[in-house]
Write a structure and sequence with these properties.
It holds the Pfam family Fungal_trans. The protein has helices at about 1-10, 20-30, 65-75, 100, 105-120, 140-150, 155-175, 190-205, 210-230, 235-245, 250-280, 300-305, 310-315, 345-365, 380-385, 390-410, 415-430, 430-435, 445-455, 460-475, 485-505, 530, 550-560, 575-590, 595-605; strands at about 290-295, 325-330, 335, 565, 570. By secondary structure, it is mostly helical. It folds into 2 domains: about 20-335, no CATH class; about 345-615, no CATH class.
């Protein structure tokens, strides 16, 4: 019998060809390029690669030849002549290309510098010590410069980006669809994937409002291509360790290692874009988290080492090359142990992976399902997720995250703190329902949604949602320019405004609001490990759970209380709901970039629709989509 079964097994087995992802990682490790941004046929160093040592971003300059290549791309993309009038020796600022005309001598160096100064520290895909602009494909370098210019807070710069965006999008889209990820040499798709990744930043900047159909198509194709290449399911640590064993411990190993680290950051960036763009286009994320394997970046000091000598010295002093791994499947949750301090990209990777799964659950079980009657679950998402084993695990994952990384999160970039609070917000409040109640789908849908929110506002989950919304407000109130502004925090702040304002509008009147010992929801010393699953699980039926404890946070979730935010008390009703909206709008003005201004405008419009139910009346026109 055994020989017979063995024959069956042999016939059943598939061919043992190297998989696309194995070929890709082998190509990355063994490549002759010093950087994943570099093209081997363009890489011509002026000095020996072993002697490369950069001291700062300011030393990376563009040669005259490179500038001319970029200028030619600009001319190819925008063929119409500039209509800036020079007859009087002055440039008119009415032309969409005025910003380029007024700064044509150094605009590309300005863009590259701002990319390295503003974008790269938060999304460190580019390994700066081995970066050589002369070795980068011209279209990719041009897109990098446009990303830098997107950080310029002037009307002319915004107009120029919007003017060139359609042609640049069209060119990038043609490049990415011309490369099939399943080809025998999958590494051929890598440079186009990096190009598309950078273009997706500009899609986020414009929020898909320019060329929305093609922008969404680029997003879908890029994430699908990356998934088909196995970027979200490969055991990078195992593959790279096997490949590194054949690379000597010298400059070649440093280059190989840095290319793998760049790829890890590229993968994290793609997951972040999936989070943001799925929200912008109101769709379920592309990435499947059923078999997600995410290798996190190593110590950032290693990644920022300025030479092979410095890198080897850090390794010899004990810096670990082992990659922490996060694993998500239908039956498994594995969060890695992390050191006390990690780079922001490491936390972004973990949080955004959880956010992708949470958003996918929301679309699968709430948006796209007719099987669940939301009113029976009082419009609380986590209660609906308990009906599905995989979705229920996500709630546990969010709680487990803070249990493991509470100290790390406290000392991290505030944008990471905000996104974790947003995870809890998405478990405790139906954001789509809140948007409908704010007027997204017109006056009739708004009134229906506000009636539903009145039921939600009586739950512990709603009170926990208010708590996280207040924490988001407090965290971003202490935001500093050096913290940077990602895409997620601004949307989180907007949704927090809806949570608190609509809760205040419809919640029951709270007695004893003059209590001098009122609990400020924005206090900074909340022990989230002690709060645990409060408001995220069903309470016992014996009533004992309603008893007050010595933890004021738990007391608020269980029993409610006045909304006190940064020392201000907001009472039930439309007047105080409108005040909350104005406070959030003012904060959005401070922390949001120019291309996020629509969220502030929306809040001011929503402010006018917040009236007490007894007032009735016409609630105005349908609000624009968010």
């Amino acid at each position: 019998m055994e020989p017979l079964v063995a024959n069956v097994q042999n016939l059943w087995s598939t061919s043992q060809r190297p998989t696309a992802e194995t070929q890709l990682w082998h190509k990355i490790v063994s490549s002759s390029s010093n950087n994943i941004f570099s093209s081997p046929d363009l890489e011509t160093w002026g000095e020996s690669s072993n002697d490369i040592r950069l001291t700062s971003n300011t030393e990376i300059c563009l040669t005259h030849d490179v500038k001319m290549q970029l200028l030619n791309i600009k001319r190819d993309l925008v063929r119409n002549e500039c209509n800036c009038s020079k007859s009087d020796g002055q440039l008119r600022d009415t032309c969409d290309q005025h910003y380029f005309c007024a700064n044509s001598n150094d605009i590309f160096e300005q863009g590259l510098y701002l990319y390295l100064d503003k974008y790269q520290p938060t999304y460190p895909i580019l390994h700066v010590p081995t970066f050589n602009p002369r070795a980068v494909q011209a279209l990719l370098l041009f897109t990098i410069c446009m990303i830098g210019l997107a950080f310029v807070k002037t009307e002319e710069a915004v107009r120029f980006i919007c003017h060139i965006y359609p042609a640049l999008l069209d060119e990038v889209y043609k490049r990415i669809i011309s490369t099939t990820p399943e080809i025998s040499n999958p590494a051929a798709a890598l440079s186009e994937l990096i190009l598309a990744h950078h273009m997706l930043f500009l899609v986020v900047v414009t929020e898909g409002n320019i060329c929305p159909t093609k922008s969404e198509m680029l997003y879908r194709y890029t994430l699908t291509a990356a998934q088909n290449l196995g970027l979200f399911s490969s055991d990078i640590a195992q593959i790279s360790d096997a490949l590194f064993s054949s690379v000597p411990k010298d400059h070649r190993r440093w280059s190989s290692w840095s290319r793998v680290e760049s790829m890890k950051n590229l993968i994290i960036g793609l997951i972040l874009y999936d989070c943001s763009l799925s929200g912008i286009f109101s769709m379920s994320p592309i990435i499947s988290t059923n078999t997600l394997k995410l290798a996190l970046p190593c110590d950032f000091d290693l990644y920022s080492a300025r030479s092979a000598h410095d890198w080897i010295q850090l390794v010899d002093q004990g810096s670990s090359l082992a990659a922490p791994m996060m694993r998500l499947s239908c039956n498994e949750i594995c969060l890695p142990d992390l050191p006390c301090q990690v780079h922001i990209s490491c936390l972004y990777g973990l949080i955004s992976a959880i956010l992708v799964r949470l958003t996918a659950n929301y679309h699968r079980l709430i948006v796209d399902s007719d099987l669940v009657q939301e009113d029976k679950h009082r419009y609380v998402p986590w209660q609906i997720y308990t009906l599905d084993r995989r979705a229920a695990m996500t709630t546990q994952l969010v709680v487990q995250f803070i249990q493991l990384y509470d100290t790390i999160l406290r000392n991290s970039n505030p944008n990471c703190v905000v996104i974790w609070h947003n995870l809890c917000l998405l478990l405790t409040a139906d954001i789509r329902l809140l948007e409908r109640a704010a007027g997204r789908e017109g006056p009739e849908a708004m009134q229906t949604a506000r009636n539903a929110i009145r039921l939600w506002a009586q739950t512990p989950a709603a009170r926990r949602a208010c708590l996280h919304a207040a924490q988001i407000f407090h965290t971003l109130s202490h935001w500093k320019p050096m913290d940077g502004t990602g895409f997620q925090p601004v949307r989180c702040l907007f949704h927090s405004a809806l949570v608190l304002a609509l809760y205040t509008l419809v919640s029951p009147v709270v007695k004893d609001v003059q209590d001098s010992n009122g609990f400020d929801l924005a206090k900074t010393d909340i022990d989230w490990k002690a709060v645990g699953e409060e408001g995220l699980t069903d309470l016992p039926q014996d009533g004992a759970a309603q008893l007050r404890t010595d933890n004021p946070t738990v007391n608020f979730i269980r029993c409610g209380g006045p909304i006190i935010l940064c020392g201000k008390t907001y009472f039930t009703g439309a007047r105080h709901a409108r005040r909350l909206v104005l406070d959030f709008a003012s904060l959005l003005d401070e922390v949001g970039r120019h291309w996020m201004a629509k969220y502030t405008r929306l809040l001011y419009k929503i402010h006018d629709t917040l009236v007490d139910v007894k007032m009735g009346g016409n609630m105005g026109q349908k609000l624009p989509y968010i």
